[in-house]
What does this fold into?
Amino acid sequence: MGQSFTMRILLILPLLVVLISCKAQTEEELEIPIPDTSYTEDQVSSFYEANKGNKLESISKGTVGNGSLVNGKLFPFSGPNFQYFDTASYMEKRAYVNDRVLEAVLATYDSLYTKYPDRSFRVMECSNEHGGKIAPHRTHQNGLSIDFMTPLARNGVACPDYDDDGVMHYLMDFDDTGHYLEDKSVVIDFDLLGEHLIILNELASQHGLKIDKVIFKKELKDELYASEYGDLIRKKGIYITKNLTPMINALHDDHYHIDFGIIR
It folds into this structure.
């Protein structure tokens, strides 16, 4: 656990720095700036309306690892069954996506709402308004990448206890069977994760997209494939990465990263 947590800290530090509010300080104020989490719902709503993007078609240039985004769309901060995971990240304009990605993801949440009206999901980091490098991510550069918070359960019931941890959620650590190391009663809901992938894959194709790649901790793949939707994930050819660096592998258990590709 120690090495994994250290790797997480090393990668997450740049993100924490980016999300820190750089407000002017007097000599009497704290020398260490604190992330601003004091935004009201009205402020967030006004921010969305002012920055949600134009009505023109999005253009994703280059690759997820070296690209840019034209006419990107800001992901809504919340909906009937979803919410963006961190207010500071949102207000720093790190929640932009290609319009096709937005439509496919929202349609997927609509579908999940029909079956799970009491379940809430979390969208994590996407892309900058105009794409390009977004520390500490190696990809997320052209609006076709998006992180999703791993759904959790306790005793077979949805566990939302950690949904509102903000950027610190990226530091959660799970063992190779999907149990949270700080509370083994909490486990990844592999059935729901698999169902999300299947629905998203289907609806992405209706918006001219395909799932190019899913980044998920490799030790957890067997648990995912053993879930209710595991065989269908294989049958549909949804590619889940096989080879990851130790650091990247360790980081992708509390969330799963998806890169989309445009097919038409």
